[in-house]
Amino acid sequence: MKRSDFIQRLVDRQLINPSIGIVLFLVIAVCLFPGCSDLQQPVLSVVAHGTTQDGTVAFSGRVVGLEGEAVAGLSLAIEHLMVDDYEDEVEWRQPLKTETDETGAFSFSGIAPGQAQLMLPFDMDTERQFYIEPEDEILSIKIGEVTYHPYPFGELIFTITPGVHIRNVEVKVRPRMRIRGRIVFNDGSPLADADIRIGVRSEDLDGSGGGSSSGGTQTDADGNFTEYVSGGGLYTVTVGYQDLSVTSEPFVLNAGERREDLLLMFDSPPIPPVAEDVETFTPPAFDRRGVWVVNPENGHAYKEVYVEGPEEAKALAAAENAYLVSINDEMEQRWLEGLFDPAPFWIGLSDVETEGQWQWDSGEPVTYTNWSRNEIFPDDLDDTEKDYVVKIFTGEWQAVGTESPFWRITRRAILETDELPADALTAE
């Protein structure tokens, strides 16, 4: 069903007032249950509580915690996507940012009409040139009598018509689950201000399943690091630095809890850092170098890297004698989904060389595909403008171009190699 047909049915049934100034599209198009893959994004609406004089949009309210307490000093951002009806062009503008006051109040003004998203932004450690993740996550957003839940992505995509002011919005947040640890050498001195590889494995307490994630982060001057996780379970943390590696004892985290005192010790005296090659060094903001993990089914190793786009991903792969991942059958697809978290990542399928002829970067034949049956975050691009492929939240694949929303939000890629690195870990 087309979105316009769906909206008209709601109007006909008097579930939506056609004069309402704001329509919110909840980001729950990702459907994990059989039989619902044909559903489009739900469309809900609320009454605008005022108007602006200049035709822009205003959005104000208050941020509270789980018990309704005011959350002060919290950064909020609105990113908006503008569509030029005359040029048929799409561009993401600079995010608007604000911070809650001592009562938890916030206010945005001057929002351009069109699609936008409310989010908790990353901060930048300017001294170390490193992104700091938000410590909280959005649990719900209440506008009027309607409460919206942006889970599982932590963001809310919405479309607002010009000149409205939405007041008295209540944004409820909660602390994100995390593991905070400290890394030391065998003499007790900290591994200070270092890039580390980190892998986190969790198992459900009832033995029904689990998962793993890997990437990279940095320690501070005291050797501390923070890794954000989700869901209760039995956790183990593995940290690698140069040729050293250490794995924690398993520990239990219940849903919503935090571990603040993990101590990991290398069985080694202090070793100096390795000087980086400035000419080939990846910008620190995306230097999340992952851990190679071996798939026992095919003997290949896989690693997650953080990148700005597919071309950077291909360059990183080439530098490591690897290639962007080729997914050759459903078993490999499921293994990747179990190993890496569900956020989108670039895969090695493209039709850059010959339009309409999809090829793997590895040169392997295309024997398996998993195209999305219903496009998430649809765009107006012609198929000839979509040369690269992203594995989206559902596990399905979607072709994208430089003006597609997924091009902007996809900051991970999976590398693959059949020449096993010496530090590769074997997944069970």
In terms of topology, how is this protein built?
Elements: H1 3-12, E1 22-25, E2 43-46, E3 57-64, E4 75-84, E5 89-92, E6 96-99, E7 105-111, E8 114-119, E9 123-125, E10 130-132, E11 136-143, E12 146-148, E13 156-160, E14 165-175, E15 178-184, E16 195-203, E17 210-218, E18 224-228, E19 233-241, E20 244-247, E21 251-253, E22 258-265, E23 293-294, E24 301-306, H2 310-319, E25 323-324, H3 330-339, E26 345-350, E27 359-360, E28 388-391, E29 397-400, H4 405-409, E30 412-417, E31 425-426
Instruction: Determine the structural class based on helices, strands and strand pairing.
Output: mainly beta
Q: Percent of residues in helical segments?
A: under 10%
The CATH class of the largest domain, by name, is Mainly Beta
- The CATH architecture of the largest domain can be given as Sandwich
Average pLDDT across residues?
77
CATH topology-level fold name of the largest domain: Immunoglobulin-like
Number of strands: 31
β-sheet strand percentage? 35-45%
CATH superfamily of the largest domain: Immunoglobulins
